[in-house]
User: What shape does this take?
Amino acid sequence: MNAITLIIIYLAGINLLSFVVMGVDKYKARKRAWRIPESTLFVLALIGGSVGSIAGMHLFRHKTRHWYFLYGMPAILILQVIIVIALMTSPIEFLVM
Assistant: This one.
C-alpha cells in the first residue's frame, strides 16, 4: 500500500467520523443530553475532517447559527487546500515509499 492510498483512506475515515460526530451532537442537543465539546468538533476539522464537518453542519442543520462555525469550518477547509497546493507546487520533492 503506497502513501497516497493511506492518505486517501485517512481522509475518508476522518471526514466520515467528523460527519457522524456532528450528527451525534445534533441528536444529543435535541435530547438535551451531554454534548460533544465544540473544541472537539474543531479539532476533527483541523486534522482533516473539514469536508465532513461542513457537510454534517448543513445536513443536520447543526451549529449553523454560530458565526465561528459558519465561517470557521470553511476557513479551515480553504487553509487546508492552500497547504496542499503549496506542498504540491513546491520545489521540494517528497519521497513516497
Observations:
- The chain has a mean pLDDT of 91.
- The chain is about 75% helix and 0% strand.
